[in-house]
Amino acid sequence: MESTQERGLNDGATGPAPRPAQAGAALELLVHGVGGATPEHMLDDPRTVRVSGDDTAAVFRRADDVEAEKRPVDPDGRPVPEAYVWCNLTSGNGARALWLLLLPFMVANLAHWMRPTAHDRTRTIRLYGLLVRLVGLSLTVLLVAAACEVALDLTAWQCAGTRACAERHTWLGFLSPTASGDGWWSPPGRRLALASLVPIALVGLLWYLSRRTWSAYESEQPLVREPDEDTARSALGRPGFWYGRRLVARLRGAHTAAGLLTVAAAVAQAAARHDREAGGPAALETLGWLLEAALVLGAVMVVVAVCRRGRSEKHLDREIDASLVRHLPLAALVLLALTLVYACWERPAWESDGRLPGDAAFGGIALVQGLLVIVLAVVAHLLYRSDPDPRSAMRGLAGPAVAMLACALGGVMSGGVSQRVADWVDGTRASIPGAPVLLTWQASVIPPLLVVLLLLAGSQAWRTLRLARAERAAVEQDYAGEAKDPDRTRRIARTRAMATLTDRGPLFVAALSTVTLLLGTGALLGALTTDKTPSHAAQHAHPFVHGAVDTAQALGSWLIGLGFILFVTLGRRAYKDRSARRTVGVLWDVGTFWPRAAHPFAPPCYAERAVPDLTWRISTWTRTTGGRLVISGHSQGSVLAAAAAWQLTPAVRKRVALLTYGSPLERLYGRWFPAHFGPAALAALHDEVDCWRNLYRVTDPIGGPVRLPDGDGTAVDCAPMKDPLAHGRTALHPLPAPILGHSDYQADPTFDRERGQLLDRLRPDLPGQRPGDAL
User: Fold this and answer.
1) What's the pLDDT tens digit per position in 50-67?
2) Assigned fold of 26-86+606-767
3) Which residues cross the membrane (predicted)?
4) Where in the chain is the domain with CATH 3.40.50?
5) Beta carbons within 8 Å of 168's beta carbon, 6+ residues apart
6) Which pLDDT band holds residue 568 (cuts at 50, 70, 90)?
7) What is the largest distance, in Å, between two alpha-carbon atoms of the chain?
């Protein structure tokens, strides 16, 4: 890169005075897809200059094109290329690799945006959003409860309270009541109070990350528009859609308070139970009842705060619910401090025995999550019936299915860390009771779940193989004029067949979520009806059944721990390895496009920075030059381009064309997020942005057609592009042409032709001409 200093090229609505309009001035604004790209690669020039933006996201030009607006227009009509590079929003530094541990929160947030399309069902839509927010709240409680299980129950209560376990871990000696002299921290209440610092630190870390990203992402204001300029018929075009500052702040306060109250409940319940059972001082027993009542009241206030509406998309809502954001976590912190003081009170006869009531806590969370998912499925079905769309994933049930997967991920992570810590502190000695029985039951259902997935994967592999064989005839027909090469034909046909696996994603999600719900229900019932592990409960059954259950329990426990270790390992590797960090960034490129509407601790929404960047750049450039602009978006960049086009005013849209290629707009977003990218939304975008062309290949596993009707002669989809460009060796391709799939769309001559036609339709000195009107 020749230079990285900003040149201030017509940037900002209050920037330099507008230049005189140049007839025919044209700009192509390139937006890359998932995984990121360098400006040098996007502009095909090693000498690039940043003309606007910062180290996180910026617009680049070739060094020779920095002052392109001041020179004569290219006689060939070629536009000046600009590259918007946004990859650092998701995978810029190593610290963001730790976002992988927030995966359940991200998945729950996706479920919020997967609701079906519905008209005149405002209350039902609000109920859908409320249920997803409650699922997100349960995940926060589950994560903090898992931290309490590890720090309070397994370490401070069980291991430190058992001589054999404490002697193996000398660092717990000052907590053990068997140590010489019995130190000040030896009583169970004080041990629990000290150990509670671990989950408290976890809650503080989540609050800090959410607060920091909220200041960096949700604080980016979109382009301000007048009320009469809001003509977009999609929610993505509303002025406040990409400005969720108020809701995220409110949810952050509520979830922080929920985490602190969870820690307080774990400590208070243990101390209050002892005071009631041991017949201690009446003052302590009364204080225990008062604290538990205050905790219940605090939990009710948290739920009320989560249930309140706070997201306004029809206008920029700059207000903050200060009383909830500040006072609710502060009140929970004060209540937690009182609880710790109460637990530290001297109780001479108190000894730690057995487990803390983790089974009841984890069982209650699992029951609540299951009920929420079931009710969410009923609500989603009602919404789908009001406006059925056969292309919607799982017939409108994608949101509940993904919410179920979020709960399953949370269970795997919480169970995994609990199982591994239990094994670490005690191993196979059985000197302590260990993790809650429910976690063992949940681990035992993982092997049968994997068997179901393997059978499903096998059936889909067989189907793909059959499709590849059937596709050979189509390949030979597409390259009828070229010499036959059976091996080459098989490779092309196999690539086309493999690309169709994306369309079968809903089947995998439906099967995984359904089996998870059924097996999870069985595990919950097994844990509630018996206080024994699955193998102990089946010890009187047939030897084969007992052996199978014992194997499933052992294997599941190992797998659930392995799953958590893989999470940590991948995050650690991504912190050190740039290539691994880029892989993690690809995951966030897809999962964090949407604003944080259901969970404040989810990774931040990069589109709340990228979409305002694009709209500001497009609006200011067209205003200052009076020229034509093509938004050229590849893959995920096409989704950002469409979102930016929705945000433009009608006057700006007349000077803007949209060129998408390798686009998942309909194939993925239209099916999984029908309320915002369904047929009605894409048709509205076509009407509002008259000049729109979409390029795709049948070998592309991500991009596809947008499937809009073309009865008026304004088809959006081009014919599928040939891939590869030649079947064998030809005069134009003396070496075998590569199968490009999802990459290098610009290498096809169709790209330049379609871009040129879009610019012709935007020519200021000619009336707009639709393809159907051409002679």
Assistant:
1) 999 888 899 999 999 988
2) Rossmann fold (3.40.50)
3) 127-147, 192-209, 253-272, 287-307, 328-345, 365-384, 396-417, 437-457, 507-528, 552-571
4) 26-86+606-767
5) 425
6) low
7) 100
